[in-house]
Structures are given as structure tokens and as C-alpha cells.
Design a protein that fits this description.
four-stranded mixed beta sheet, alpha+beta
Length: 610
């Protein structure tokens, strides 16, 4: 799972996630220094830096952390390969950059200003003449126009889906580019194109864009990829000649001379790397490790610090996704029965040390989470589809039942038994079989063994229901291939949803993406009501309208039992060697570590003296 999350981060960090978060202000018809959601920008045209940075932070030193499990490519823009972690974020610039202390805003980077047409069907970006790629060549409007065409024609399917309604990118002059849009659901498109990584036309005229490669691509960002060892580490080196280092969006950021991301075959090996000082910083995702293993000498004597940082972003959609492309999962009753067999309360008590809450919503830890019965705003969107929806959608929203924490709640298992029988799977010689005599079997595809302690009790309950269940371990390369081609029964995944959802919902939940290789629609959801509600989200003209539409989607998705939801915590558990200092204020919607912390030479001296 970690490998694929890195894949998604590299692919969408500068494009879909920014675009999903940022939308047009209704009044933006003049040239401005940025764009904001449904209102004014926090930072005015003369702002000097973001409030969550130290503009005087010293530059220098190194920080090392974890990159993932494996990589085999430095091309993050195509379907093939497992690209290096963070390569897009560190080495490529975009027309505009986001602020991490606002729910939705974007400010000038390569473009110093932007102008949106009165009819909102085009947006014009005015670029800085000083903007340059790492080889010293200028970034021009021709490069921007080339970027969108190459991403649509040869890039990952996610780009083609998101950019489908961008009609054209027109070069007005060497430093001015205009995008024109088609259709009615164009609210997100100006921000989508503003967040795309800018590619060099001259570079890709000589390099085959469609192939994986371990040659570092030409970018224009604050770092270059300076060194690597396959499946071991990647080193990013800060550029002294970075053209945008003194811009307001970058002031006080990117302070480390080197960022090293290390790769480990599993989480256990990764944890040992921290304790031995092989790397500096770790975010801990395993509750057992956090609760029981952080007792090594360097932590006890203060050389390693352990903290929990608040996280105000939506907590994500982590869970076991059920592949409805397979006939055995096409019946909702089967999917619901599988969910009843997972005893979260037992797991939280015995495996997670009580550190988590149950995820119930696709938009958990956000005001977009559906609760109780539909509000009037939600009903207005759901009523036209009443004939196509189960009655339950119009009642209390579906929430996984709370077990007795015994590990085998007989009441819930009896309900699961009834559902499976109603779906045509009867018990025969201790096994669930359908009318054709076919045994109901399920396979959990996984790449990391750390989840086995959670999956095995789940499997035991499934077996008690007569379901043949097993774990299929695969290496990271095979996992990537099977994930992209939807070759699995059940798979673990976490998606972090945007604070302001938009066009990216098509990749997660749209009928159009259910059969598109590499899409995020892992469950294979094909529901015309959800398609229509996604359009409502994309067309929302106010925050309230958008929230109503997202809640309606959440309500319909949860009624479909497309996943067995996991757990969440609204925080980051981190541990790090005491070598660093940081701003007084953490950005509300980000960790802010790799781009706002800095190497503290005095702390390093004290550390080395111990």
C-alpha cells in the first residue's frame, strides 16, 4: 500500500489534488495574483511569505525519511512503472502554488498573475520572464501548452479523465497562455491547469515521454534528483540557482540542502532504520509499533523526539475495497455480510491499543460527512433519483454496527448468515455455495505483512460463515500491476479526499472510470445517481451547495457497501532525531515538515556530543 500511495502522490500532487481543492471565486474577472474558493484570498497581492513559515530559516544540512517499498522509474506521469517518491513535488514547478493554511487557495509561481474571462470559459496566465528549467532554459507558454497535450495524449489515464473538458491551450505570446474550456462543469478547470507540473517541450522532443526511465527528468523546481540506488534510496539536492527561491510562495521553504528518501522491504525493517539512526524522520502508521516499540535508548535519553501533530484534513477513505467487477461481489447483500464479519471494536482494543476511531464516511473528519437523515439540501438532490435508490438512503445514513468486541459477535454473524442465504449462498458441508455449487471464496491481496495480524481474525470470521478466505502476498511490482488492472478480490487502500472535492471524484467513483486501467475506482462503482451527484459537486456555486452534494454522494456510497471501512485518527504520529527546528505555527492542512523545517546545527552538535 505504501508504494502505491507514493505513486498517487507523485502522479497527482501538482495536478488533481490541487485542482480538486481550488475553485474559482465568483468575482474573479480581473487580473489577480491568485485564486480562492468562494471568496477572498487570505494573502493580498503584496504578501511577503506564508504565515506558517520562518522567512529567516537557515539553509543547509540534510534530512532523511522513508520513501516507500520500491521504485523503478523517474517518470511519474504515465501508467507504467512505480515512480520515485515526491519527484513531482520536489522537482517540478506549476503555474500557481497552494497555501497550506487555507481550505482552498492558490498563488502565483511560474505565473505572476491570472485573469478569468467573464463567462468563466477561459483563463489566461501571465508568466514570469525569469522562470527557468534546471538547465537554464526559459519556461515559456509553449512549454505550458505542450504539457497539457502530452499528458492527455500519452499520460496516465487520470490526466485524460481530469482534462477532458479542456478544449485547448493557446500560446498568446511567449509568456502568455490561455486555456479554453467546454461544457457546463468547468468550475474546477482553471485551478486544475494552474496546478499541472510544467514539462519542457525541448527536453521531451528528445526523450520518449511514454517510457519508464531511471534518468532524472528535467524540471524547474527547488530540487534536482542527484543520486539514487534502486529500491534503496533517492537523494534530492536543493538548487542554489533555483529561480523562484525568493518568491513569496517559497520564502522560508525548502531549507534542506538534501532530502534523502529511503526504501525498505517492509515496515519492520523501516522502523529499525529509525532506531539505528539510518534516517531521521518517520511518520508511524502502525498502532502496535507506536504503542509498544518506541522504547529504544535514543528515545529514552531524548536524542529522538516523539510527537503527535494535529491533522485538520479529511482523514481519507482507508478500507478493504471489494471488486464489484467480479460476480461474487455484485450482490450488495454479500458485500454487507463481509463487512459484518470484521470486528473493529475487538481490533481496536486488542491490536490498536485504542488509538483509532472507526471510519464510517468516505469524507471522514470533515464537514462533508453525511450524518443522520438527509438535510433539506441533500433531499433536494436525492429526490429526483428516488426510484433508483434504496429506501435506506432517505433514512439514517449507513454506519457499520458496533460489535461486542468479543472478536466473534454472534449477533452480527447471524445477520451476515441471513444476508448470504438471501443472496443465494447456502451452507453445504460447512461451505457457502451458490445454486451452481460454486464455493464463495475471497482473496485479500497485500504487499506488506504488517496487515496480516488484522486480516487473519477477519478471515477467521469469514470462515465461520462458510466463506473460503485467504491472503495472497505479492511483491510491490506485481501489486502495482494487479492494482492497475483491477486483478484482485479485496484490496487495502487509503485515499485522502480533498477539502473541496471536484473533478477528481470522477476518478474515484464515476461509471466512466470503472474500467479505466489505473483509475482510483477500485470497487468498480457504476451508478448513474453517483455520476449525476458528481456533476452537482462540480457545478456547485457555493460552499453550502457543494457540501450538500458531497454529503449526498457519501450517503449513496455508504448505502452500497462497496468497502469494509477501516479506522482513522485526526493526527500525525511522528518521531525524529533531534536535529531540526521549525516555525512556531504548523500549517493547518499539512505536516509542513520537509518544506518548512530546517537543519539546526547547534542541536546537531549537542546530539553528537551525547
Amino acid at each position: 500500500m505504501t508504494s502505491f500511495l507514493s505513486r498517487l502522490s507523485a502522479l497527482f500532487a501538482a495536478a488533481l489534488l490541487i485542482a480538486a481543492t481550488f475553485v474559482l471565486p465568483a468575482q474573479s474577472v480581473e487580473r489577480r495574483h491568485g485564486m480562492s474558493i468562494f471568496g477572498e484570498l487570505k494573502y493580498g497581492p503584496d504578501f511577503q511569505h506564508f504565515a506558517y513559515v520562518n522567512p529567516s530559516a537557515p539553509k543547509g544540512g540534510k534530512i532523511s525519511s522513508i520513501g516507500g517499498l520500491a521504485f523503478d522509474s523517474f517518470n511519474p506521469f504515465i501508467l507504467k512503472g512505480a515512480p520515485a517518491a515526491a519527484i513531482t513535488a520536489f522537482t517540478f514547478d506549476s503555474l500557481m502554488a497552494s497555501a497550506d493554511d487555507e481550505p482552498a487557495s492558490v498563488y502565483g509561481l511560474v505565473a505572476h498573475s491570472v485573469e478569468v474571462a467573464d463567462d468563466k470559459r477561459s483563463v489566461t496566465f501571465y508568466m514570469r520572464p525569469e522562470a527557468k528549467f534546471a538547465d537554464g532554459s526559459p519556461i515559456t507558454a509553449a512549454d505550458v501548452a505542450f504539457t497539457i497535450e502530452i499528458l492527455r495524449s500519452k499520460g496516465h489515464p487520470g490526466y485524460r479523465i481530469a482534462l477532458a473538458d479542456v478544449e485547448k491551450a493557446e500560446v498568446i505570446d511567449p509568456l502568455t497562455v490561455r486555456y479554453t474550456f467546454r461544457g457546463d462543469l468547468i468550475r474546477d478547470l482553471p485551478l486544475l491547469v494552474a496546478g499541472l507540473p510544467i514539462l519542457s517541450k525541448a527536453y521531451y522532443d528528445k526523450i520518449d515521454f511514454s517510457r519508464t526511465s531511471l534518468v532524472a527528468p528535467l524540471g524547474s523546481g527547488p530540487y534536482t534528483l542527484s543520486d539514487y540506488k534502486a529500491n534503496s534510496y533517492i537523494t534530492y539536492r536543493r538548487r542554489d540557482d533555483y529561480w523562484a527561491k525568493d518568491l513569496p510562495v517559497n520564502k522560508g521553504r525548502y531549507n534542506f540542502d538534501e532530502i534523502v528518501l529511503r526504501y525498505y522491504k517492509d515496515r519492520t525493517a523501516g522502523f529499525l532504520g529509525l532506531t539505528s539512526g539510518e534516517y531521521d524522520l518517520r511518520e508511524e502508521f502502525t498502532s502496535k509499533t507506536w504503542a509498544t516499540d518506541y522504547n529504544f535508548p535514543a528515545l529514552a535519553d531524548g536524542r529522538v523526539k516523539r510527537e503527535t501533530l494535529p491533522d485538520a484534513t479529511p482523514s481519507g477513505t482507508q478500507g478493504w475495497f471489494l471488486n464489484t467487477r467480479r460476480a461474487k461481489f455484485s450482490d450488495k447483500r454479500v458485500r454487507m455480510a463481509l463487512g459484518l464479519a470484521f470486528d473493529f471494536e475487538w481490533s481496536n482494543k486488542n491490536l490498536f491499543y485504542g488509538l483509532y476511531q472507526r471510519t464510517t464516511s468516505y469524507f471522514e473528519n470533515s464537514p462533508m460527512k453525511a450524518v443522520g437523515k438527509p438535510t433539506p439540501g441533500e433531499l433536494a438532490l436525492l429526490e429526483p433519483h428516488r426510484a433508483k435508490l434504496p429506501k435506506s438512503v432517505f433514512g439514517e445514513v449507513y454506519v457499520p454496527p458496533v460489535s461486542d468486541a468479543s472478536g466473534r459477535d454472534r449477533t452480527l454473524l447471524r445477520k451476515a448468515h441471513v444476508l448470504l442465504t438471501e443472496a443465494g449462498y447456502k451452507m453445504q458441508n460447512g461451505r457457502r455455495v451458490n445454486a451452481k455449487g460454486e464455493v464463495l471464496n475471497v482473496e485479500f491481496l497485500r504487499v506488506e505483512s504488517g496487515f496480516d495480524r488484522i486480516i487473519v481474525p477477519f478471515i477467521n470470521n469469514l470462515k465461520a460463515l462458510g466463506i473460503e478466505a485467504s491472503i495472497r502476498p505479492v511483491d510491490s511490482a506485481q501489486y502495482e500491476t494487479r492494482l492497475k488492472s483491477f486483478d484482485f478480490d479485496i484490496i487495502i487502500q487509503r485515499y485522502i479526499m480533498s477539502k473541496t472535492p471536484g473533478v477528481e471524484l470522477r476518478s474515484y467513483f464515476s461509471s466512466k472510470t470503472a474500467d479505466v486501467s489505473g483509475s482510483r475506482n477500485l470497487a468498480g462503482i457504476k451508478d448513474p445517481v453517483i455520476d449525476a451527484l458528481i456533476d452537482e459537486v462540480m457545478g456547485a456555486k457555493s460552499r453550502a451547495k457543494l457540501d450538500d452534494a458531497v454529503k449526498a454522494i457519501d450517503r449513496v456510497l455508504r448505502s452500497g457497501n462497496y468497502w469494509v471501512s477501516h479506522w482513522f485518527k485526526a493526527s500525525h504520529n511522528i518521531a525524529y532525531w533531534d536535529k531540526f527546528s521549525r516555525p512556531a505555527v504548523k500549517p493547518k492542512f499539512a505536516r509542513g515538515i520537509l518544506d518548512t523545517w530546517w537543519y539546526d546545527a547547534e542541536k546537531v552538535k549537542k546530539l553528537e556530543a551525547r
